[in-house]
Amino acid sequence: MIEGEEEVGSDNLETFVRENTDKLDNDVILISDTGMLANDIPSITTGLRGMSYVEVEITGPNRDLHSGLYGGAVANPINILTKMVASLHDENNRVTIPGFYDKVEELNAAEREQFKQIPFSLENYQNALDIESVYGEKGYSTLERKSIRPTLDVNGIWGGYIGEGAKTVIASKAYAKISMRLVPNQKSEEITKLFMDHFVSIAPKGVTVKVTPHHGGEAYVMHPDGLEFQAASKAYVETFGKAPIPVRDGGSIPIVALFEETLQSKTVLMGFGLDSDAIHSPNEHFGVFNFLKGIETIPHFYKHFTTMHQASQ
Amino acid sequence: MIEGEEEVGSDNLETFVRENTDKLDNDVILISDTGMLANDIPSITTGLRGMSYVEVEITGPNRDLHSGLYGGAVANPINILTKMVASLHDENNRVTIPGFYDKVEELNAAEREQFKQIPFSLENYQNALDIESVYGEKGYSTLERKSIRPTLDVNGIWGGYIGEGAKTVIASKAYAKISMRLVPNQKSEEITKLFMDHFVSIAPKGVTVKVTPHHGGEAYVMHPDGLEFQAASKAYVETFGKAPIPVRDGGSIPIVALFEETLQSKTVLMGFGLDSDAIHSPNEHFGVFNFLKGIETIPHFYKHFTTMHQASQ
Q1: How close, in Å, is residue B58 to chain A by CA atoms?
Q2: Sign of torsion, CA B279 B281 B287 B292?
Q3: Backbone angles phi, psi at B81, to 5 degrees
Q4: Closest residue of chain A to B169, computed from CA coordinates
């Protein structure tokens, strides 16, 4: 199955899958849309975050105003938007939406200990991004923040005069696109509703708020002791000479949770990309080594999975 | 003298005025760039706010990032910008920049009482803007907020993905244009410096901040007992049948303070616009009644001022 709408929200995919469950009957699903730790440290993604994506619109006065004549006397939608968005995180960088963390699974000490085993250099990470410091929820490491913890990020913001130079205007409207990455048990629709109710409730008098949901998706977890992971693991051993490390990833592939629900199938995520591929950034790329290694490794998975699956019937 | 650059910051005017003080020698200056309360309530602007206008740029990672892979783990410049901008006002809507109010002249009870005499309907004001409530610094009326109190407004904000639909990106940079309206004694350059120092100081680790000053200007006050106001007052009596009310305005005409400094001249602001003219907004307009009333009234000012000025020599 080939999906061409993934980066624009896969609006038609769910309907297609639900209407074609018979044709999509399968033993296991393989998707290559993830990465691995390094070319000499193969890994398999065993968890994905879900997503809730919303667009907000703040309306103040019914028209753009002169900031001299009205400045200080009416609610400026941009200032209000910054206040409302800023209030969505507390001083520990936790999301303040009531109920947001209610269903978040807290990992136990042993599970968190596994994160420390994953090869990761904070210094290299910071250097690669030219940042002096990482930033995120207090009490969690960088690897945990970007995989097992839910987030709230503004993906776009706009309002007022954005050309060159200065214009003394108070805009009538201000906008933001906001996405929340979700972890297992946080339901996308439920979180979207929590966001909408909260965001409307914190608006001061003098502005009106509209929240429009964009696409969402559920989180996914697979267990490394399952047949799928074990078969994939054998395949990596054949081509990389070592077993892959199970890693929970921060991205979202909503179709994976949908497949599990509608087709009762587990998905194995055999991806060969690297962090340095700059995905969704300028100069996005994919190495020839990785491309060829994927072509070599995947057939071994077919072979091992078929054998193991037949043996288990 | 005709100035064609006023709405783009008058970058060349100051130099021109300083180099041509001899040619610009005068007894009084008249500018028509203000409004009056209503067609049957003539008024003269006796105060203008100054301005400091800056542009800020927040840089986080050196490139746009995928919000799934990095979300929650690095400082998102847009989220940080909203936090920094939001923190510029406290819970009473006062500006939090240290020193911002140090030189602000507080009006005494009698002066503030005068504001209550100005005909003003809060209901009409709110209805005209379609807002449920006004908004501003605690302890001050709407008329005070937009004239004798300094402000800080975001005039534009942008960053990340602002097209249709959803894109899961963490932007490398976020921007805002911010203007502060100033009152007498607050110096534009000084306030710009206070802003820059403060804004840079509140940035968290993980982002860098650049602040670029745009144009500025000083506030201005004239006294209703001066010759200029009295001569103008007589002119209004002749054409409107009643004396004008002195009103302090929230806008900025930086040249007025510059004229006072370089030419040692007072400026009388005889403007005939109305609040409903929607200046700097769509459908900006100027009434024929007001246009003709200005043409009728101004020559009377020349006559009265000349007579009174010669008598005072």
Answers
A1: 12
A2: positive
A3: -60, -45
A4: A155
Structure tokens at B185: 């004694």
A47 at the B interface (CB within 8 A)? no
Task: Tell me whether residue B260 is in a domain.
Answer: yes
Cα(B186)–Cα(B256) distance, integer angstroms: 15
pLDDT in tens, B52-62: 999 999 999 99
A62, B9: Cβ pair inside 8 Å?
Answer: no
Tell me what percent of the residues of chain A surpass a pLDDT of 90: 77
Nearest Cβ partner of B250 from A71, A136, A176?
A: A71
The residues, ordered by sequence, that sit 6+ positions from A131 with a Cβ below 8 Å of its Cβ are: B60, B61, B62, B74, B75, B206, B207
Residue B267 and residue B154 in one domain: no
Q: Is residue B130 part of a domain?
A: no
What pLDDT does B278 receive? 85
B198 and B307 assigned to the same domain: no
Q: How far apart are CA B307 and CA B44, in angstroms?
A: 20
Q: Are residues B66 and B212 in the same domain?
A: yes
B258-261 contacts, C-beta under 8 A, 24 or more apart: B258/B13, B258/B14, B258/B17, B258/B217, B258/B218, B259/B17, B259/B29, B260/B220, B261/B218
pLDDT for residue A148 is more than 90 = yes
Instruction: Give the distance from residue A306's alpha carbon to the nearest chain B alpha carbon, in angstroms.
Output: 32
For the domain that residue A192 is a member of, what is the CATH number?
3.30.70.360
What domain range is B160 assigned to?
50-104+150-217
Looking at the DSSP assignment, which residues form a beta bridge with residue A44? A246
Query: Which residues 93-112 of A have a C-beta within 8 angstroms of B?
Result: none
Distance from CA of A149 to the nearest CA of B (A): 8
Q: Does residue A164 sit in the same domain as residue A76? A: yes
Of residues B66, B181, B280, nearest to A280 (C-beta): B66
* Interface contact flag, A157 B157, Cβ < 8 Å: yes
Tell whether A53 lies on the interface with B, counting CB pairs under 8 A. Answer: yes
Q: Which residue has the higher pLDDT, B81 or A4?
A: B81
Q: Is residue B169 part of a domain?
A: yes
Q: Which among B167, B181, B281 has CB closest to A71?
A: B181
Enumerate helices (H) and strands (E) in chain B, giving the number of each.
10, 11
Contacts of A155 (CB under 8 A, 6+ apart): A53, A177, A178, A179, B67, B78, B160, B161, B166, B167, B168, B169, B170, B171
CA distance B170 to A152: 11
Size (chain A), residues: 313
Domain's final residue, options B201, B217, B233: B217
- Choosing from B165, B189, B217, the residue where a domain stops is B217
And the tokens for A91?
Answer: 């001083």
Q: Answer whether residue A137 shows pLDDT above 80.
A: yes
Say whether both A78 and A226 belong to one domain: no
- A253 in contact with B at a CB cutoff of 8 Å? no
Total domain count for chain A?
A: 2
The string of pLDDT tens digits covering residues A43-71 is 999 999 999 999 999 999 999 998 888 99
Q: Are residues A197 and A166 in the same domain?
A: yes
For residue B274, what is the domain's CATH number?
3.40.630.10
Q: What is the mean pLDDT of residues B20-30?
A: 95
pLDDT tens for A88-114 read 999 999 999 999 999 998 988 988 988
User: Do the domain assignments include residue A247?
Assistant: yes
Same domain, A181 and A276: no
Q: Both A196 and A262 in a single domain? A: no
Query: Do A51 and A250 meet the contact criterion of CB atoms below 8 Å apart?
Result: no
Residue A313 has pLDDT above 90, yes or no: no
